[in-house]
Design goal:
heterodimer, A: 62 residues, mainly alpha, B: 485 residues, alpha/beta, FAD/NAD(P)-binding domain, eight-stranded mixed beta sheet, 9 helices, 24 strands, 24% helix
Amino acid sequence: MTNQATNPAERQSWRPSEEERFATKPTGWTRFIRVFLPYQIWRYLVINLKMMRIIFKGHGHS
Amino acid sequence: MARVVILGAGVSGHTAASFARRWLGKEHSVTVVSPKPTYNWIPSNIWVGIGLMPEHKVVFELAPVYAKAGIEFVQAKAVSIHPEGSADSSSPYVVVESTLGTSAGTQTRVPYDYLINATGPKLKFEATPGLGPEGGNSYSVCTESHATETSHALDESVARMRRGEKQRFLVGTGHGMCTCQGAAFEYIVNLEFELRRRKVRDKAEIVWISNEYELGDFGMGGMHLKYGGYVTPSKIFTESLFAERGLHWITRSHVQKVDPGRAYYENLEGDQRQIDFDFAMLLPPFSGVGMLAQDRQGTDITSRLFAPNGFMKVDADYASKSYEEWRARDWPSTYQNPSYDNVFAVGIAFAPPHAISRPRTSKTGTAISPTPPRTGMPSAIIGKAVARTIVNRIQGSSKAPQRASMAEMGAACVASAGANPFTGTAASMVVYPIVPDFERYPDYGRDTDLTYGEIGLAGHWIKIGLHHLFLHKAKLRPGWAMIPE
Protein backbone atom coordinates (compact mmCIF):
# COMPACT_ATOMS: atom_id res chain seq x y z
CA MET A 1 0.00 0.00 0.00
CA THR A 2 0.94 3.60 -0.44
CA ASN A 3 1.77 6.15 2.21
CA GLN A 4 -1.04 7.51 4.27
CA ALA A 5 -1.05 10.40 6.69
CA THR A 6 -0.99 8.72 10.08
CA ASN A 7 -3.18 11.28 11.75
CA PRO A 8 -6.53 11.79 10.01
CA ALA A 9 -6.56 15.35 11.31
CA GLU A 10 -3.56 16.09 9.06
CA ARG A 11 -5.65 15.33 6.03
CA GLN A 12 -7.40 18.06 4.15
CA SER A 13 -11.11 17.65 3.65
CA TRP A 14 -12.46 17.92 0.14
CA ARG A 15 -14.04 20.98 -1.38
CA PRO A 16 -14.91 21.61 -5.03
CA SER A 17 -12.06 22.88 -7.17
CA GLU A 18 -12.04 26.48 -8.37
CA GLU A 19 -11.28 25.09 -11.84
CA GLU A 20 -14.85 23.86 -12.18
CA ARG A 21 -15.95 27.47 -12.68
CA PHE A 22 -13.98 27.67 -15.92
CA ALA A 23 -15.58 24.69 -17.68
CA THR A 24 -17.34 25.30 -20.98
CA LYS A 25 -21.12 25.08 -20.68
CA PRO A 26 -23.64 24.43 -23.45
CA THR A 27 -26.07 27.13 -24.44
CA GLY A 28 -29.83 26.64 -24.27
CA TRP A 29 -29.87 26.06 -28.04
CA THR A 30 -27.30 23.25 -27.75
CA ARG A 31 -29.29 21.59 -24.98
CA PHE A 32 -32.50 21.94 -27.01
CA ILE A 33 -31.03 20.49 -30.18
CA ARG A 34 -29.70 17.45 -28.27
CA VAL A 35 -33.27 16.25 -27.70
CA PHE A 36 -35.08 17.91 -30.63
CA LEU A 37 -36.76 14.94 -32.29
CA PRO A 38 -36.46 15.76 -36.05
CA TYR A 39 -32.81 16.73 -35.68
CA GLN A 40 -32.03 13.65 -33.58
CA ILE A 41 -33.61 11.32 -36.16
CA TRP A 42 -31.18 12.83 -38.68
CA ARG A 43 -28.26 12.43 -36.23
CA TYR A 44 -29.30 8.83 -35.59
CA LEU A 45 -28.73 8.08 -39.26
CA VAL A 46 -25.46 10.03 -39.41
CA ILE A 47 -23.98 8.43 -36.26
CA ASN A 48 -24.92 4.96 -37.47
CA LEU A 49 -23.14 5.59 -40.76
CA LYS A 50 -20.06 6.88 -38.97
CA MET A 51 -20.01 3.80 -36.74
CA MET A 52 -20.50 1.43 -39.67
CA ARG A 53 -17.52 3.07 -41.39
CA ILE A 54 -15.34 2.27 -38.37
CA ILE A 55 -16.75 -1.25 -38.04
CA PHE A 56 -15.88 -2.13 -41.61
CA LYS A 57 -12.50 -0.40 -41.43
CA GLY A 58 -11.40 -1.92 -38.17
CA HIS A 59 -12.13 -5.63 -38.23
CA GLY A 60 -9.30 -8.12 -38.17
CA HIS A 61 -7.42 -8.93 -41.34
CA SER A 62 -4.77 -11.35 -42.50
CA MET B 1 -10.30 -34.18 -34.63
CA ALA B 2 -9.14 -30.96 -32.96
CA ARG B 3 -10.18 -29.71 -29.53
CA VAL B 4 -10.61 -25.95 -29.08
CA VAL B 5 -10.97 -24.88 -25.46
CA ILE B 6 -11.98 -21.38 -24.44
CA LEU B 7 -11.53 -20.24 -20.85
CA GLY B 8 -14.18 -17.64 -20.12
CA ALA B 9 -17.59 -16.75 -21.51
CA GLY B 10 -17.46 -12.97 -21.55
CA VAL B 11 -17.72 -10.85 -24.70
CA SER B 12 -14.38 -12.01 -26.11
CA GLY B 13 -14.53 -15.70 -25.16
CA HIS B 14 -18.17 -16.09 -26.13
CA THR B 15 -17.52 -14.48 -29.51
CA ALA B 16 -14.50 -16.71 -30.12
CA ALA B 17 -16.44 -19.85 -29.16
CA SER B 18 -19.47 -18.94 -31.28
CA PHE B 19 -17.45 -18.31 -34.43
CA ALA B 20 -15.12 -21.28 -33.91
CA ARG B 21 -18.18 -23.52 -33.65
CA ARG B 22 -19.79 -21.94 -36.71
CA TRP B 23 -16.68 -22.32 -38.86
CA LEU B 24 -15.50 -25.76 -37.72
CA GLY B 25 -16.91 -29.08 -38.81
CA LYS B 26 -18.69 -31.27 -36.26
CA GLU B 27 -15.71 -33.60 -36.10
CA HIS B 28 -13.94 -30.93 -34.07
CA SER B 29 -14.98 -29.96 -30.56
CA VAL B 30 -15.39 -26.50 -29.03
CA THR B 31 -15.50 -26.33 -25.23
CA VAL B 32 -16.15 -23.29 -23.06
CA VAL B 33 -15.04 -23.32 -19.42
CA SER B 34 -16.63 -20.61 -17.28
CA PRO B 35 -17.15 -20.42 -13.50
CA LYS B 36 -20.57 -18.80 -13.92
CA PRO B 37 -23.59 -20.46 -15.53
CA THR B 38 -24.70 -17.21 -17.13
CA TYR B 39 -23.62 -14.69 -19.75
CA ASN B 40 -23.73 -11.06 -18.60
CA TRP B 41 -24.07 -8.18 -21.08
CA ILE B 42 -21.94 -5.96 -18.86
CA PRO B 43 -22.52 -2.57 -20.59
CA SER B 44 -26.15 -2.64 -19.46
CA ASN B 45 -25.18 -3.27 -15.81
CA ILE B 46 -25.13 0.53 -15.57
CA TRP B 47 -28.92 0.58 -15.96
CA VAL B 48 -29.29 -2.23 -13.42
CA GLY B 49 -27.22 -0.23 -10.94
CA ILE B 50 -29.49 2.78 -11.42
CA GLY B 51 -32.61 0.68 -10.94
CA LEU B 52 -33.91 1.09 -14.48
CA MET B 53 -33.46 -2.52 -15.54
CA PRO B 54 -33.87 -5.78 -13.63
CA GLU B 55 -30.91 -8.13 -13.41
CA HIS B 56 -32.56 -10.84 -15.51
CA LYS B 57 -32.60 -8.51 -18.54
CA VAL B 58 -28.78 -8.47 -18.73
CA VAL B 59 -28.03 -12.16 -18.17
CA PHE B 60 -29.06 -15.48 -19.66
CA GLU B 61 -28.22 -19.14 -19.05
CA LEU B 62 -25.33 -20.35 -21.20
CA ALA B 63 -25.96 -24.11 -21.07
CA PRO B 64 -29.07 -24.21 -23.32
CA VAL B 65 -27.54 -21.80 -25.84
CA TYR B 66 -24.35 -23.83 -26.05
CA ALA B 67 -26.24 -27.15 -26.15
CA LYS B 68 -28.20 -25.92 -29.18
CA ALA B 69 -25.07 -24.63 -30.89
CA GLY B 70 -23.04 -27.78 -30.26
CA ILE B 71 -20.58 -26.16 -27.87
CA GLU B 72 -19.59 -28.17 -24.80
CA PHE B 73 -19.98 -26.16 -21.58
CA VAL B 74 -18.01 -26.88 -18.42
CA GLN B 75 -19.02 -24.82 -15.41
CA ALA B 76 -15.70 -24.49 -13.67
CA LYS B 77 -12.83 -22.11 -13.06
CA ALA B 78 -9.48 -22.67 -14.70
CA VAL B 79 -6.73 -23.39 -12.19
CA SER B 80 -3.62 -24.19 -14.21
CA ILE B 81 -2.41 -24.62 -17.77
CA HIS B 82 -0.15 -27.53 -18.74
CA PRO B 83 0.92 -26.67 -22.29
CA GLU B 84 3.36 -29.59 -22.56
CA GLY B 85 1.03 -32.15 -20.98
CA SER B 86 2.20 -34.32 -18.11
CA ALA B 87 4.88 -36.93 -17.50
CA ASP B 88 2.58 -39.65 -18.85
CA SER B 89 1.16 -37.79 -21.86
CA SER B 90 2.32 -35.00 -24.14
CA SER B 91 -1.25 -33.84 -24.75
CA PRO B 92 -1.71 -30.31 -23.35
CA TYR B 93 -4.49 -29.74 -20.87
CA VAL B 94 -6.04 -27.31 -18.41
CA VAL B 95 -6.90 -28.23 -14.82
CA VAL B 96 -10.31 -26.84 -13.95
CA GLU B 97 -12.21 -26.77 -10.67
CA SER B 98 -15.95 -27.28 -10.81
CA THR B 99 -18.26 -24.54 -9.48
CA LEU B 100 -21.39 -26.59 -10.13
CA GLY B 101 -23.60 -27.85 -7.31
CA THR B 102 -22.44 -30.94 -5.46
CA SER B 103 -19.35 -31.36 -7.65
CA ALA B 104 -18.04 -27.91 -6.66
CA GLY B 105 -14.35 -28.06 -5.82
CA THR B 106 -13.66 -31.19 -7.86
CA GLN B 107 -10.67 -30.79 -10.16
CA THR B 108 -10.55 -32.37 -13.62
CA ARG B 109 -8.36 -32.16 -16.72
CA VAL B 110 -9.69 -30.60 -19.92
CA PRO B 111 -7.40 -31.53 -22.83
CA TYR B 112 -6.93 -29.11 -25.72
CA ASP B 113 -5.21 -28.70 -29.05
CA TYR B 114 -5.88 -24.96 -29.13
CA LEU B 115 -6.47 -22.85 -26.04
CA ILE B 116 -7.99 -19.37 -25.86
CA ASN B 117 -7.57 -17.62 -22.54
CA ALA B 118 -10.54 -15.25 -22.25
CA THR B 119 -10.95 -15.27 -18.50
CA GLY B 120 -11.38 -11.52 -18.21
CA PRO B 121 -10.10 -9.81 -15.10
CA LYS B 122 -10.01 -10.55 -11.45
CA LEU B 123 -11.85 -7.69 -9.73
CA LYS B 124 -9.09 -6.71 -7.34
CA PHE B 125 -11.10 -4.94 -4.64
CA GLU B 126 -8.54 -6.00 -2.04
CA ALA B 127 -5.98 -3.60 -3.55
CA THR B 128 -7.74 -0.81 -1.65
CA PRO B 129 -8.75 -1.58 1.95
CA GLY B 130 -12.49 -1.17 2.40
CA LEU B 131 -13.24 -1.07 -1.33
CA GLY B 132 -16.13 -3.01 -2.81
CA PRO B 133 -19.47 -4.52 -1.85
CA GLU B 134 -18.13 -7.82 -0.49
CA GLY B 135 -17.07 -6.84 3.01
CA GLY B 136 -16.18 -3.31 1.95
CA ASN B 137 -17.83 0.08 2.14
CA SER B 138 -18.53 0.94 -1.50
CA TYR B 139 -20.64 -0.41 -4.34
CA SER B 140 -19.81 -1.60 -7.84
CA VAL B 141 -21.52 -2.36 -11.16
CA CYS B 142 -18.90 -4.85 -12.38
CA THR B 143 -21.25 -7.82 -12.12
CA GLU B 144 -25.02 -8.07 -12.37
CA SER B 145 -25.36 -8.93 -8.67
CA HIS B 146 -23.14 -6.00 -7.67
CA ALA B 147 -25.29 -3.74 -9.84
CA THR B 148 -28.51 -4.97 -8.21
CA GLU B 149 -27.06 -4.36 -4.75
CA THR B 150 -26.04 -0.87 -5.87
CA SER B 151 -29.56 -0.08 -7.07
CA HIS B 152 -30.99 -1.11 -3.69
CA ALA B 153 -28.53 1.18 -1.93
CA LEU B 154 -29.51 3.97 -4.30
CA ASP B 155 -33.17 3.41 -3.41
CA GLU B 156 -32.28 3.83 0.27
CA SER B 157 -30.44 7.09 -0.46
CA VAL B 158 -33.40 8.37 -2.46
CA ALA B 159 -35.74 7.49 0.41
CA ARG B 160 -33.53 9.52 2.75
CA MET B 161 -33.56 12.49 0.37
CA ARG B 162 -37.34 12.30 0.18
CA ARG B 163 -37.31 12.65 3.96
CA GLY B 164 -35.32 15.85 3.49
CA GLU B 165 -31.80 14.58 4.10
CA LYS B 166 -28.87 15.67 1.93
CA GLN B 167 -26.79 12.90 0.39
CA ARG B 168 -23.30 12.97 -1.12
CA PHE B 169 -22.61 10.47 -3.91
CA LEU B 170 -19.02 9.54 -4.73
CA VAL B 171 -18.51 7.80 -8.08
CA GLY B 172 -15.37 6.82 -9.96
CA THR B 173 -12.29 4.66 -9.61
CA GLY B 174 -11.24 3.06 -6.33
CA HIS B 175 -7.51 2.85 -6.97
CA GLY B 176 -4.74 4.71 -8.78
CA MET B 177 -4.29 1.95 -11.37
CA CYS B 178 -7.89 1.40 -12.43
CA THR B 179 -9.24 1.14 -15.93
CA CYS B 180 -12.91 1.26 -17.08
CA GLN B 181 -13.39 4.98 -16.37
CA GLY B 182 -16.02 4.89 -19.11
CA ALA B 183 -18.29 2.65 -17.03
CA ALA B 184 -17.97 4.94 -14.01
CA PHE B 185 -18.65 7.93 -16.28
CA GLU B 186 -21.84 6.29 -17.52
CA TYR B 187 -22.88 5.57 -13.97
CA ILE B 188 -22.41 9.12 -12.70
CA VAL B 189 -24.30 10.82 -15.53
CA ASN B 190 -27.11 8.24 -15.38
CA LEU B 191 -27.25 8.68 -11.62
CA GLU B 192 -27.65 12.45 -12.00
CA PHE B 193 -30.37 11.96 -14.62
CA GLU B 194 -32.19 9.44 -12.44
CA LEU B 195 -32.08 11.64 -9.35
CA ARG B 196 -33.68 14.41 -11.42
CA ARG B 197 -36.34 11.96 -12.60
CA ARG B 198 -37.03 10.96 -9.02
CA LYS B 199 -37.24 14.68 -8.12
CA VAL B 200 -34.54 14.60 -5.43
CA ARG B 201 -31.65 16.16 -7.37
CA ASP B 202 -31.68 19.25 -5.16
CA LYS B 203 -30.82 17.09 -2.16
CA ALA B 204 -27.84 15.41 -3.85
CA GLU B 205 -24.21 16.43 -4.16
CA ILE B 206 -22.50 14.23 -6.75
CA VAL B 207 -18.72 13.97 -6.88
CA TRP B 208 -16.49 12.18 -9.39
CA ILE B 209 -13.12 10.81 -8.30
CA SER B 210 -10.66 9.21 -10.70
CA ASN B 211 -7.06 8.45 -11.50
CA GLU B 212 -7.30 10.28 -14.84
CA TYR B 213 -4.96 13.24 -15.33
CA GLU B 214 -7.83 15.09 -17.00
CA LEU B 215 -11.51 14.33 -17.27
CA GLY B 216 -12.27 12.51 -20.52
CA ASP B 217 -9.03 10.50 -20.54
CA PHE B 218 -10.91 7.17 -20.28
CA GLY B 219 -7.60 5.30 -20.17
CA MET B 220 -7.02 6.12 -23.83
CA GLY B 221 -5.03 9.28 -23.27
CA GLY B 222 -8.20 11.20 -24.12
CA MET B 223 -9.07 11.99 -27.72
CA HIS B 224 -9.31 14.98 -29.99
CA LEU B 225 -12.51 15.76 -31.84
CA LYS B 226 -13.22 18.19 -34.66
CA TYR B 227 -16.03 20.44 -33.49
CA GLY B 228 -17.13 23.99 -34.25
CA GLY B 229 -14.06 24.80 -36.31
CA TYR B 230 -11.60 23.52 -33.69
CA VAL B 231 -9.86 20.29 -32.84
CA THR B 232 -10.89 20.01 -29.21
CA PRO B 233 -9.69 17.60 -26.49
CA SER B 234 -12.24 15.31 -24.85
CA LYS B 235 -11.44 17.03 -21.53
CA ILE B 236 -13.39 20.08 -22.73
CA PHE B 237 -16.48 18.05 -23.65
CA THR B 238 -16.43 15.96 -20.47
CA GLU B 239 -15.92 18.96 -18.20
CA SER B 240 -18.72 20.71 -20.04
CA LEU B 241 -21.11 17.81 -19.44
CA PHE B 242 -20.15 17.64 -15.77
CA ALA B 243 -20.53 21.41 -15.31
CA GLU B 244 -23.90 21.38 -17.09
CA ARG B 245 -25.13 18.58 -14.80
CA GLY B 246 -23.69 20.17 -11.64
CA LEU B 247 -21.26 17.30 -11.05
CA HIS B 248 -18.08 18.04 -9.12
CA TRP B 249 -14.83 16.30 -9.95
CA ILE B 250 -11.59 15.16 -8.40
CA THR B 251 -8.97 13.84 -10.81
CA ARG B 252 -5.33 12.69 -10.55
CA SER B 253 -6.18 10.74 -7.41
CA HIS B 254 -5.55 7.32 -5.92
CA VAL B 255 -8.11 6.09 -3.38
CA GLN B 256 -6.08 4.58 -0.54
CA LYS B 257 -8.77 3.38 1.81
CA VAL B 258 -12.55 3.38 2.10
CA ASP B 259 -14.02 3.51 5.57
CA PRO B 260 -17.78 3.54 6.18
CA GLY B 261 -18.80 6.95 4.82
CA ARG B 262 -15.28 8.22 4.21
CA ALA B 263 -12.72 7.76 1.41
CA TYR B 264 -9.06 8.59 1.84
CA TYR B 265 -7.09 9.53 -1.23
CA GLU B 266 -3.79 10.89 -2.42
CA ASN B 267 -3.33 13.12 -5.45
CA LEU B 268 -0.39 13.58 -7.80
CA GLU B 269 0.90 16.44 -5.65
CA GLY B 270 1.23 13.93 -2.84
CA ASP B 271 -1.50 15.66 -0.82
CA GLN B 272 -3.37 13.39 1.57
CA ARG B 273 -7.07 14.13 1.46
CA GLN B 274 -10.38 12.67 2.50
CA ILE B 275 -13.98 12.99 1.41
CA ASP B 276 -17.08 11.90 3.27
CA PHE B 277 -19.89 10.22 1.37
CA ASP B 278 -23.30 8.67 1.88
CA PHE B 279 -23.09 6.43 -1.19
CA ALA B 280 -19.98 5.40 -3.11
CA MET B 281 -19.76 3.47 -6.39
CA LEU B 282 -16.06 2.94 -7.00
CA LEU B 283 -14.66 0.52 -9.56
CA PRO B 284 -11.77 -1.79 -8.61
CA PRO B 285 -8.45 -2.26 -10.39
CA PHE B 286 -8.09 -5.40 -12.49
CA SER B 287 -5.50 -8.16 -12.55
CA GLY B 288 -5.27 -11.55 -14.19
CA VAL B 289 -7.32 -14.30 -12.53
CA GLY B 290 -4.21 -15.97 -11.10
CA MET B 291 -3.90 -19.12 -13.21
CA LEU B 292 -0.68 -21.09 -12.86
CA ALA B 293 1.29 -22.91 -15.54
CA GLN B 294 3.48 -26.00 -15.34
CA ASP B 295 5.72 -27.78 -17.80
CA ARG B 296 5.76 -31.51 -18.41
CA GLN B 297 7.93 -32.16 -15.36
CA GLY B 298 5.61 -30.15 -13.14
CA THR B 299 8.00 -27.18 -12.90
CA ASP B 300 6.29 -23.84 -12.49
CA ILE B 301 6.42 -21.87 -15.75
CA THR B 302 3.79 -19.28 -14.82
CA SER B 303 6.20 -16.42 -15.53
CA ARG B 304 6.77 -17.79 -19.06
CA LEU B 305 3.07 -17.58 -19.89
CA PHE B 306 1.94 -14.70 -17.74
CA ALA B 307 3.11 -11.16 -16.95
CA PRO B 308 3.54 -10.28 -13.24
CA ASN B 309 0.04 -8.74 -13.21
CA GLY B 310 -1.44 -12.14 -14.11
CA PHE B 311 -2.38 -11.25 -17.69
CA MET B 312 -1.14 -13.60 -20.42
CA LYS B 313 1.83 -12.70 -22.58
CA VAL B 314 1.07 -12.54 -26.29
CA ASP B 315 2.85 -11.18 -29.38
CA ALA B 316 3.40 -7.71 -27.91
CA ASP B 317 6.71 -5.92 -27.34
CA TYR B 318 7.05 -6.07 -23.57
CA ALA B 319 10.48 -4.43 -23.43
CA SER B 320 10.58 -1.73 -20.77
CA LYS B 321 10.44 1.67 -22.48
CA SER B 322 9.82 5.27 -21.58
CA TYR B 323 6.57 6.91 -22.67
CA GLU B 324 8.43 8.73 -25.46
CA GLU B 325 9.61 5.39 -26.88
CA TRP B 326 6.18 3.76 -26.94
CA ARG B 327 5.05 2.80 -30.42
CA ALA B 328 1.73 1.62 -31.80
CA ARG B 329 3.49 -1.48 -33.16
CA ASP B 330 4.29 -2.55 -29.57
CA TRP B 331 0.67 -3.71 -29.38
CA PRO B 332 -0.14 -7.34 -30.21
CA SER B 333 -1.94 -8.36 -33.39
CA THR B 334 -2.25 -12.17 -33.36
CA TYR B 335 -2.62 -12.69 -29.56
CA GLN B 336 -0.50 -15.82 -29.75
CA ASN B 337 1.61 -16.74 -26.73
CA PRO B 338 5.31 -16.47 -27.69
CA SER B 339 6.21 -19.78 -25.97
CA TYR B 340 3.29 -21.92 -27.13
CA ASP B 341 1.78 -21.11 -30.52
CA ASN B 342 -1.44 -23.01 -29.80
CA VAL B 343 -2.22 -20.77 -26.79
CA PHE B 344 -3.91 -17.39 -27.26
CA ALA B 345 -5.25 -14.68 -24.95
CA VAL B 346 -8.07 -12.31 -25.87
CA GLY B 347 -10.02 -9.43 -24.32
CA ILE B 348 -8.87 -8.27 -20.90
CA ALA B 349 -6.90 -11.52 -20.40
CA PHE B 350 -3.99 -10.49 -22.66
CA ALA B 351 -1.17 -8.45 -21.15
CA PRO B 352 -0.94 -5.04 -22.80
CA PRO B 353 2.63 -3.91 -23.55
CA HIS B 354 2.11 -0.67 -21.68
CA ALA B 355 -0.56 1.86 -20.86
CA ILE B 356 -2.09 4.22 -23.41
CA SER B 357 -2.37 7.22 -21.08
CA ARG B 358 0.93 8.72 -19.98
CA PRO B 359 2.03 7.02 -16.72
CA ARG B 360 2.41 9.32 -13.72
CA THR B 361 3.44 8.93 -10.11
CA SER B 362 2.73 11.15 -7.16
CA LYS B 363 5.42 12.95 -5.21
CA THR B 364 5.37 10.06 -2.76
CA GLY B 365 5.87 7.53 -5.57
CA THR B 366 2.30 6.25 -5.92
CA ALA B 367 1.35 5.32 -9.49
CA ILE B 368 -1.74 7.31 -10.45
CA SER B 369 -2.72 6.80 -14.06
CA PRO B 370 -5.29 4.72 -15.94
CA THR B 371 -4.42 1.30 -17.28
CA PRO B 372 -5.55 0.57 -20.84
CA PRO B 373 -9.12 -0.51 -21.60
CA ARG B 374 -9.61 -3.57 -23.81
CA THR B 375 -13.28 -4.31 -23.39
CA GLY B 376 -16.36 -4.16 -25.60
CA MET B 377 -15.98 -3.85 -29.35
CA PRO B 378 -12.20 -4.49 -29.59
CA SER B 379 -12.38 -7.54 -27.34
CA ALA B 380 -15.10 -9.08 -29.54
CA ILE B 381 -13.15 -8.31 -32.72
CA ILE B 382 -10.02 -9.88 -31.19
CA GLY B 383 -11.99 -12.98 -30.11
CA LYS B 384 -13.34 -13.43 -33.62
CA ALA B 385 -9.91 -12.91 -35.23
CA VAL B 386 -8.28 -15.52 -32.98
CA ALA B 387 -11.10 -17.97 -33.73
CA ARG B 388 -10.42 -17.47 -37.45
CA THR B 389 -6.67 -18.06 -36.97
CA ILE B 390 -7.32 -21.33 -35.12
CA VAL B 391 -9.94 -22.53 -37.60
CA ASN B 392 -7.57 -21.80 -40.50
CA ARG B 393 -4.84 -23.85 -38.83
CA ILE B 394 -7.18 -26.74 -38.09
CA GLN B 395 -8.36 -26.71 -41.70
CA GLY B 396 -4.77 -26.79 -42.93
CA SER B 397 -4.78 -23.33 -44.44
CA SER B 398 -1.41 -21.69 -45.01
CA LYS B 399 -2.88 -18.23 -44.39
CA ALA B 400 -1.02 -15.99 -41.95
CA PRO B 401 -2.67 -15.53 -38.55
CA GLN B 402 -5.54 -13.06 -38.53
CA ARG B 403 -4.42 -9.64 -37.27
CA ALA B 404 -6.49 -7.47 -34.97
CA SER B 405 -4.20 -4.89 -33.42
CA MET B 406 -5.83 -2.22 -31.28
CA ALA B 407 -3.42 0.17 -32.97
CA GLU B 408 -4.99 -0.66 -36.34
CA MET B 409 -8.66 -0.86 -35.41
CA GLY B 410 -11.23 1.68 -34.42
CA ALA B 411 -13.91 1.45 -31.78
CA ALA B 412 -17.41 2.80 -31.54
CA CYS B 413 -18.67 3.45 -28.03
CA VAL B 414 -21.99 4.76 -26.81
CA ALA B 415 -21.96 6.01 -23.24
CA SER B 416 -25.43 6.44 -21.79
CA ALA B 417 -25.98 9.81 -20.13
CA GLY B 418 -29.65 9.44 -19.22
CA ALA B 419 -32.17 6.74 -20.10
CA ASN B 420 -35.42 8.10 -21.51
CA PRO B 421 -36.71 7.67 -25.09
CA PHE B 422 -37.54 11.39 -25.41
CA THR B 423 -35.37 13.28 -22.92
CA GLY B 424 -32.44 10.91 -22.46
CA THR B 425 -29.04 11.37 -24.05
CA ALA B 426 -25.87 9.42 -24.71
CA ALA B 427 -22.38 10.30 -25.84
CA SER B 428 -21.68 8.56 -29.14
CA MET B 429 -17.96 8.22 -29.73
CA VAL B 430 -15.83 6.78 -32.48
CA VAL B 431 -12.04 6.58 -32.22
CA TYR B 432 -9.56 5.48 -34.84
CA PRO B 433 -7.23 3.89 -33.98
CA ILE B 434 -7.87 2.90 -30.37
CA VAL B 435 -4.17 2.98 -29.51
CA PRO B 436 -2.78 6.29 -30.78
CA ASP B 437 -0.22 5.98 -33.57
CA PHE B 438 1.92 9.12 -33.55
CA GLU B 439 3.97 7.88 -36.51
CA ARG B 440 0.89 7.82 -38.75
CA TYR B 441 -0.92 10.71 -37.11
CA PRO B 442 1.80 12.96 -35.62
CA ASP B 443 -0.50 15.67 -34.22
CA TYR B 444 -2.97 13.72 -32.14
CA GLY B 445 -2.12 10.05 -32.67
CA ARG B 446 -5.51 9.45 -34.26
CA ASP B 447 -7.31 10.22 -37.50
CA THR B 448 -9.36 13.32 -36.72
CA ASP B 449 -11.56 12.68 -39.77
CA LEU B 450 -12.71 9.37 -38.27
CA THR B 451 -12.50 10.15 -34.57
CA TYR B 452 -15.76 11.67 -33.62
CA GLY B 453 -18.19 12.33 -30.78
CA GLU B 454 -21.49 14.00 -29.95
CA ILE B 455 -24.09 13.97 -27.21
CA GLY B 456 -27.76 13.64 -27.94
CA LEU B 457 -30.97 11.66 -27.85
CA ALA B 458 -29.94 9.72 -30.97
CA GLY B 459 -27.11 8.18 -28.95
CA HIS B 460 -29.61 6.88 -26.41
CA TRP B 461 -31.64 5.22 -29.15
CA ILE B 462 -28.47 3.59 -30.46
CA LYS B 463 -27.58 2.44 -26.94
CA ILE B 464 -31.00 0.80 -26.55
CA GLY B 465 -30.64 -0.79 -29.97
CA LEU B 466 -27.20 -2.15 -29.11
CA HIS B 467 -28.50 -3.68 -25.87
CA HIS B 468 -31.11 -5.73 -27.76
CA LEU B 469 -28.91 -6.41 -30.79
CA PHE B 470 -25.93 -7.73 -28.83
CA LEU B 471 -28.08 -9.88 -26.54
CA HIS B 472 -29.73 -11.31 -29.67
CA LYS B 473 -26.28 -12.02 -31.05
CA ALA B 474 -24.97 -13.52 -27.79
CA LYS B 475 -27.99 -15.83 -27.60
CA LEU B 476 -27.01 -17.07 -31.09
CA ARG B 477 -30.48 -16.35 -32.41
CA PRO B 478 -31.19 -16.33 -36.16
CA GLY B 479 -28.86 -14.00 -38.05
CA TRP B 480 -26.49 -13.55 -35.11
CA ALA B 481 -23.38 -13.93 -37.23
CA MET B 482 -24.48 -11.04 -39.47
CA ILE B 483 -24.38 -8.59 -36.57
CA PRO B 484 -20.99 -6.90 -36.48
CA GLU B 485 -18.94 -6.88 -33.32
